[in-house]
User: Which sequence fits this backbone?
């Protein structure tokens, strides 16, 4: 199903690493990432978009997965970085990521976060609302730093995805609506404020999309806005950021399109517009998160119990769960999985793969076809690279799994396994309880 997954001598391999050896060496639950898969996706974006069109840029949306090693890899591939918090910004800087190639998003950036971004010369701040615009302008003056800004707008388009990850609608906590009396005074302010460099507009219409309609419509809305801004303010907006959202293959039923299906369609609209209106082609950014990293991830779990409830169902319980992958519980996400010592072999039952959290909804996969499996076997869940580790929690004081980056036959621990002592590291005891 994926280029980096193979079966050799009846064993599951991730690149040239035997999954059984990884599980033995690094223990389970374990997040495994294929470096080749990430680099292949980067190459596709480079060849299909960055090299094909002038003045185009791709920023990795690090909310999908952020580790210091990954930030290094993304930089090596020539990508920019999208961060949404002081913590992601800190991690990027910890990897010596060039701050002028960082884009800072977020619908409620704190004064502390903005100060951090300004002092470290972050290249772009995507302003989400009017309060932030005011605050940022004051802070630029206070710290005597200029900021390059874009406005996140809600282009008013619906995208065909789960409601929780559809973000282009007008009724959204993100971004400025296109209303005359809200957006235009903000634009005027940004143009006139000597401490702000007004670069342009950003939209992100949703996530895990297989259809380019929302991107194309949002681009059209944004272009029209740029035309009006030129007309009204005699200001030519130099940049447009089209967000991410490009869908990936979680199961065999998913038929994701290549990134060029989105980018070519959007670029066609932009180029046509620029020609018609004699508009200089703006710099164009995209911000893929899941597309770069999702399919590269595999989670290895050990089966701890196989419980057959006669005439009802069989629960196969593993040593992780919603604490390392909350996506099934949160979005009814679908995954596929196979036992690593009998990978993709003929199946004889449908089971419910569940975790070990004290929560009935702690299900990883419903209706998972499996051969007969036993306690102690290791099972691999595919396409867990995006929004698994980054959304993990210590619920039930479970330790968040370690993460390994596989490169050919080598494997490197890029997130160390947590110890029990890590779980009480921040606990403090008031004197009267000592
Ligand atoms: N840019 C912005 C401004 C975003 O808000 C997002 C995602 C992205 C880029 C990257 O989107 P991607 O290419 O990864 O689809 N936790 C959810 C996904 C939330 C996405 C939020 N924003 C999930 O697990 O499906």
Assistant:
């Amino acid at each position: 199903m994926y280029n980096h997954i193979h079966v050799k001598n009846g064993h599951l391999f991730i690149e040239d690493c035997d999954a059984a050896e990884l599980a033995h060496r690094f223990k389970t639950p374990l997040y495994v990432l294929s470096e080749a898969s990430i680099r292949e996706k980067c190459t596709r974006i480079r060849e299909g978009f960055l090299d094909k069109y002038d003045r185009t840029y791709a920023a990795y949306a690090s909310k999908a997965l952020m580790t210091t090693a990954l930030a290094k890899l993304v930089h090596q591939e020539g990508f920019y970085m999208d961060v949404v918090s002081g913590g992601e910004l800190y991690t990027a800087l910890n990897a010596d990521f060039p701050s002028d190639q960082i884009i800072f998003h977020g619908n409620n950036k704190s004064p502390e976060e903005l100060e951090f971004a300004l002092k470290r010369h972050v290249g772009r701040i995507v302003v989400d609302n009017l309060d932030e615009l005011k605050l940022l302008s004051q802070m630029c003056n206070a710290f005597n730093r200029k900021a390059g800004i874009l406005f996140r707008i809600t282009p008013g388009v619906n995208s065909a995805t789960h409601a929780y990850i559809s973000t282009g609608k007008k009724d959204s906590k993100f971004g400025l609506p296109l209303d005359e009396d809200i957006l235009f005074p903000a634009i005027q302010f940004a143009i006139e404020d000597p401490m702000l460099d007004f670069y342009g507009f950003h939209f992100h219409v949703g996530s895990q999309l297989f259809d380019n309609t929302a991107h194309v419509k949002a681009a059209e809305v944004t272009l029209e806005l740029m035309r009006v801004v030129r007309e009204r303010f005699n200001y030519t907006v130099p940049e447009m950021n089209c967000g991410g959202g490009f869908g990936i293959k979680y199961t065999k039923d998913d038929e994701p399109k290549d990134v060029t299906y989105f980018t070519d369609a959007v670029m066609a609209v932009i180029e046509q517009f620029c020609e018609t209106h004699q508009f200089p082609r703006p710099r164009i950014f995209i911000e893929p998160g899941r597309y770069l990293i999702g399919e590269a991830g595999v989670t290895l779990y050990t089966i701890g119990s196989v419980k057959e409830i006669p005439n009802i169902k069989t629960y196969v319980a593993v040593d992780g769960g919603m604490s390392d992958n909350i996506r099934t519980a949160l979005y009814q996400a679908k995954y596929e999985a196979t036992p690593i010592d009998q990978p993709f072999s003929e199946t004889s039952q449908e089971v419910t793969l569940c975790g070990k959290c004290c929560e009935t909804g702690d299900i990883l996969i419903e209706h998972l076809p499996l051969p007969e499996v036993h306690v102690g076997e290791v099972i691999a869940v595919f396409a867990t690279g995006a929004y698994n580790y980054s959304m993990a929690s210590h619920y039930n004081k479970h330790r968040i799994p370690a993460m390994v980056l596989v490169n050919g036959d080598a494997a490197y621990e890029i997130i160390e396994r947590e110890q029990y002592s890590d779980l009480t590291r921040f606990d403090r005891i008031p004197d009267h309880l000592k």
